[in-house]
Amino acid sequence: MYRFRSVENLLGQYQELEKQQIYFASLAQLNDPMEGTRRYFWKGDKIVWRNLLKHYLLCLERATIIVFLLKDDEVITKEIIPVYDCLSKLPTEIYRKRMKSIYDEFFSNEFVINYIDFLAQNTNKIYQEELYVHLKILSLTALKSIFRVNKERGFPPIINFQNTDDIYSKINFSDLWNSIEDDVYTEIIRAIHETLKVLDAELLHKLRDSYKLQFVFIEFTQVYIDALDELTYPTAYVACFMDNCTNSSIWGTYGVNHTGVCLKFKTNLVNPTIPLKSISSYSTISGYISEFRDFEFKPIDYSAKFEDLDFFKNLGSLPLPQLIEQWYTDEDGVYSNCSIDVLNKTDEWRNEHWSFFSRAYYKKLPEWAHEKEYRIVLSSALNFYDEPENRLLEYRFEDLESIIFGMKTPKESRQKIIDILNRKCKENERTNFDIYEMAFSPEKNELYPRKMMSLSHNR
Fold first, then answer.
1. Are residues 388 and 401 in contact, defined by beta-carbon separation less than 8 angstroms?
2. How do residues 11-59 score in pLDDT, each as one tens digit?
C-alpha cells in the first residue's frame, strides 16, 4: 500500500517519519466535501416529531443565550449546539422549568399543532433539504416562544419581536402540503429550499455587522441539521492509501506537485492489514493505554449513489435511558413506533446499524475513481480520537517496505530522509531498505519508480 505525504509532514512540525506515525484526518480535512455522506431522512409518528422539535427548541434556546454573551464580532460554530443534552440533563431546576415553559408556549400554538400533524401524516421520506424547509418555517415561532418566556424571566432579548409579523403562521401548511400531488412534491420542496437559501444570503448581507444575529436568524437551522448526525454515529477519521504510485496527477496533488514522498507499506494481497499502535482503553491512574492491533485496508467504492439512513431509527450515540426518555416516548409514557426495532430486536438492529456506519466512509463519487484508493477508518464510541495527537498512530519500522521520492523532491529533504532511514535501519537491525525515485519511461509513456539505492547493514 502506498501513502503520499508532503516533506513538511514527514520532516517538519509533525516528524511523521522520525516518529513512525500515520495521521488520521477528520472528514473536514479531506478534499472531497461529500466524504462520509449519508442521505439522512426523517419519517415518523407524532411522538418523534414532537421530540425533534423539543430538541430543536432546547438547542436554539442555548444558542441564543451563548451568542448574547459573546462579542458581536465573534465567529460562532456548531460546537455551541448541545446535541447531546435533554431536559433532565439541564443543570438546575430553574432552567428545566424555563424550558418547560418554552415548550408549553411553542406547542400550544395552533400553527405548530397543525404542522406536527402534517409531518406525522406525511408518507414521504423527508430528506435534509426538506427538513431545512420545515424547521425554517417553524423557526420564527420558536424564537418568539423562547424570547417571550426568557423576557418574562428577566433575559433581555437580542431583538424586539413586537412588530415582527410571522407570515408563515397565517398559512395552513397542513392543507397546503396535502393538496400537492406526489409527482411534483419534491420539485416544490426543492424550489422552496432554494428560495429560502437566497433569502438567507440576502439577510446575511444585511446583518453582516453582527455574527450573533447571523447565526441565530440565518445559520442556526442548517448548522443544527448538520450537527444532528452526531446522534447517530461517533465521529470517524481516515487515513488514505493507494494501490500504486505511478499516477502523475496523484503526484501532482497528494504528492504536492511531485515534491513530496510516497511511503510503501508491507501488506498481504488477500486481506491487507497493518498493525498500528492505538488507544485501547483509559485508566484514571495512567491515562490512555495503547497497544498494537491490526487495521484493515478497504477499497473505496466509487458509486454515484449514497445510502439512505432513517434518522429516528438510528440514534445509536445515545444511551438507552436517554433515548427512551428524550426521543421514543411522549409526556404520558407512550412509545413511538420508531422504537420497535431498536428496543425489541436489539441485536439485529445493532448489527445493521454498525454495518451502515462503516460503509459510508468507503464510498466516493465516480469522478474520484482514478485514485484507486484504500482506507483505514478510526473511530471510538468513547471519543478517544477527538484530539489530533491521539490520531497519530504508530507503525512498526519493519512494516515500512520502501520510500519513493517525487521527481522534484528537494535534494536537501532527500538527504534528511535518507539519514533518518539509515539510522533507523541500524537501530532496528534491518539489513536492507530500498529507496526509489519517480522517473518517466519514454518507451511506455508513463511514470515508474526507479531504484536509487539500498541501505544495507550487517546484524
1. no
2. 998 999 999 999 999 988 888 888 888 899 999 999 999 999 999 999 9
Query: Poorest-confidence range of 53-57, 208-212, 375-379?
Result: 208-212
Yes or no: say if 311 and 232 are a contact pair by the CB < 8 Å rule.
Answer: yes
Closest of 191, 220, 224, 193 to residue 207, by C-alpha: 220
Helix residue spans in 169-290 (DSSP H): 173-178, 182-206, 211-214, 220-227, 248-253
| 236-242 and 373-379 strand pairing | antiparallel
Half-sphere exposure of 37 (CA within 13 A, CB side): 18
Higher pLDDT among residues 124 and 2, named by residue = 2
Alpha carbons 130 and 121: distance in angstroms, whole number: 15
Look at residues 237, 275, 285, 264 and name the one whose alpha carbon lies nearest to residue 384.
Answer: 237
Q: What is the tens place of the pLDDT at every residue in 101-129?
A: 999 999 999 999 999 999 999 888 999 99
Instruction: Write the DSSP string, 2-24.
Output: EEEE-HHHHHSSS-HHHHTEEEP
Cell of residue 390, nine digits: 491521539
Rounded mean pLDDT, 246-256: 95
- The answer to whether 145 and 130 are in contact (CB under 8 A) is no
Residue with cell 413506533: 337
353 within 8 A of 301, measured Cβ to Cβ: no
Q: Which residues pair with 441 in a beta bridge?
A: 446
Supply the pTM of this predicted model.
Answer: 0.83
Q: What ranges do the domains of the chain cover?
A: 2-30+235-304+365-456, 44-231
Question: What's 329's DSSP letter?
Answer: B
pLDDT-derived band at 155 (thresholds 50, 70, 90) equals confident
Residue among 279, 20, 411 at smallest CA distance from 5: 20
Distance CA 247, CA 389 (A): 31
The H or E element spanning position 456 is strand 446-456
Place of cell 497497544: 291
